[in-house]
Design a protein that fits this description.
Length: about 140
Amino acid sequence: MANPADDRTAGPSGALRRDVETSGANLKREVEAGAGRVSEEFQRAREQLSQTASAAREDLAADLRKLSDDVARLTATVAGVAKTVGGQIGETASGLGSEIASTAKEEAGSMVAEFERVARRNPLAVVTGALCVGLVIGLMSGRR
């Protein structure tokens, strides 16, 4: 049997020791439970972040597809406008070219008519002018 003197000395300090051990065990269980809850919260947060990132990635992919389609439609629209404007410019240039050619033909015809009138009124001047032009051309080609 145990010595009563040992029980007296072991009594208060033994109870203190048991209280400390019990408190330590309780604290350990609470810390482990808290760590488990924290771990679960971290896991839940990680899953939510993963789901949010996945949804954002899908939204971004959909937006990029939509942007690509918009750019393709815009390209087709710009090509159509450029074709229409090019055709209009071609028609305008053709009409303007015809008008310039017509005006030049009329001016050349009036110059020829004027030259014929001068030649009929003064044939000697025309012959003299032609002789001078021929002489100048002959001198220029002979010096080469």
